[in-house]
Amino acid sequence: RDDGKGESVCCCCAPCTQTGLTCTRLLLSRPGRFCLLFTSMLLLYLFYLGVSWSVEVQAFGEESSAIRTGINTTRAKEVLSSLCDAYNRNEVSGDACHRLCFDQEWTVADFYEGNKVVVVIKDGGQQAVFKSLHPSIEDYESSPEGEKEEDFLRRIRDKTDEELMLGWPSDLIDHLLSILWPSHLRSGGQQLSAADRRSLWALMQQPEYLTFRILPLSRVTPKVIGSCGHMYEVESLVAFRMKGYYMNLKGKILVHLMGTLKLFYEFLNEPLQWCDVRFDNLGLSAEYPKRFVMMDGDLLFTESKLKALMTSKTCKTDADCAIGDCTSRCQADFKCGPRNNENLDVFCEKLINKLFGNAWSKSNKYLNACHDTVTNTTTKLNDLRLTWSWTLSDV
Ligand SMILES: *[C@@H]1O[C@H](CO)[C@@H](O)[C@H](O)[C@H]1NC(C)=O
Ligand SMILES: *[C@@H]1O[C@H](CO)[C@@H](O)[C@H](O)[C@H]1NC(C)=O
Fold it and tell me: pLDDT tens, position by position, for the chain (395 residues)?
């Protein structure tokens, strides 16, 4: 038989270009039928994802398609113009520059300048969200001129390690570069230009950029779509919004919260530590069902990083040792110890108990985990893991 598996896949999953093979014959063959079945299941799954996404958004999401009033549009355009001017002078680069700087006729839908700069522009029917720690590329330290590429790459690795402490192996620098600067891969591994280095080094100085680029493995951070100079574009999320107080809806929200918590505990060998737990900080991503995604990654750490931050603090009382919601004890040597509360504790206190108050029953394992004061945390987490693996196996 000449219609082997490979060819049939080509014919039914992509337009048939081969001559001498008719599609009918292939569709009747066994691999052909398998292929049809596979395609229809895929379509059904995509449909299901689409439906569950829109149900979520209607139930507890707030899509902001409107242009916010009271924002300083002049300032927003000033920030973008100076970036695009630098791009046109070939001083910065990035895979989002061309699109961002194409005609410079932006419709600014939202703008925020505080501990971070966020510009939301309307791009056709869609929104593009650009973020940066500082407004201008001049606000970032530039990298030394005439530095050898390998030295630059070593600094990239060291910076990543300093920020995330995942112990990135030196022989995987190329892989790291392709994560942090995806155009490198597309250019076929050409040397980085001066503009590339300037831009990438500015991005490297932004912990949230590193978190969002490297921790998507955790599946709780928004996608980085691209970058231009010191600004990076992130996936536009639908903000969480409490709309009603029906039990059924709360149940759905609880499942989403648990999906997120599960992923924190599952991240490699480094359970993620989230120290900024607020409903405001939760968003829905079209990519991911049954979980919330962090809107803001500033206080999301790997376990090693948080431990390093905590233990380098000096203190007089326990209060000096808190980093956001993450707490620790002030020890006898006036140094803070490692974190002494759990993501679970903070989720319960700041989200789940607020949502359910006293309306909980022992039969709900998730709510029980928040109210049970007898069982120790280790045991609670083990029980939760078991429950997660049954009820949230697809998260
Ligand atoms: C808006 O930004 C411009 C340019 O930076 C500035 O001159 C102006 O004072 C700002 N307006 C307000 C209301 O803050
Ligand atoms: C928690 O409780 C379990 C069972 O009751 C016990 O075996 C374990 O040692 C306890 N762990 C801690 C850290 O206290």
Answer: 344 444 444 444 444 445 455 556 666 677 777 767 877 877 777 676 666 777 777 777 887 777 888 999 999 999 999 999 999 999 999 999 999 999 999 999 999 999 999 999 997 778 999 999 999 999 999 988 889 999 999 999 999 999 999 988 888 999 999 999 999 887 877 889 999 999 999 999 999 999 999 988 788 999 999 999 999 999 999 999 877 656 678 888 999 999 999 999 988 778 999 999 999 999 999 888 889 999 999 999 999 999 999 999 999 999 999 999 999 999 999 999 999 999 999 999 999 998 888 777 778 889 989 988 889 888 999 999 999 988 888 88
Return the amino acid letter for 15.
Answer: P
As given in the structure block, the two tokens for residue 79 are 């920030």
Does ligand 1 come within 6 angstroms of the Cβ of 78? yes
The Å distance, Cα 383 to ligand 2 centre, comes to: 12
Structure-token match 């989230």, residue found: 274
* Residue 133 Ramachandran class (φ > 0 left, ψ -120 to 50 alpha, else beta): alpha
Answer yes or no: are the C-beta atoms of 140 and 230 closer than 8 Å.
yes
- Contacts with 34 (C-beta within 8 Å, 6 or more apart), sequence order: none
Domain spans of the chain, in order of start:
1-60, 65-236, 239-391
Contact 74 CB / ligand 1 (< 6 Å): yes
Residue 118's SS3 state is strand
Cβ atoms of residues 71 and 178 within 8 Å: no
Do residues 242 and 279 make contact, with C-beta atoms less than 8 angstroms apart?
A: yes
Alpha helices in 312-364 (DSSP H): 343-347, 353-356
What's the CA gap between 171 and 193, in Å, rounded? 22
- Take atom 3 of ligand 2 and give the residue whose Cα is closest: 379
Query: Which of 137, 133, 136 minimizes the C-alpha distance to 114?
Result: 133
Ligand 1 pocket, residue 72 CB under 6 Å: yes
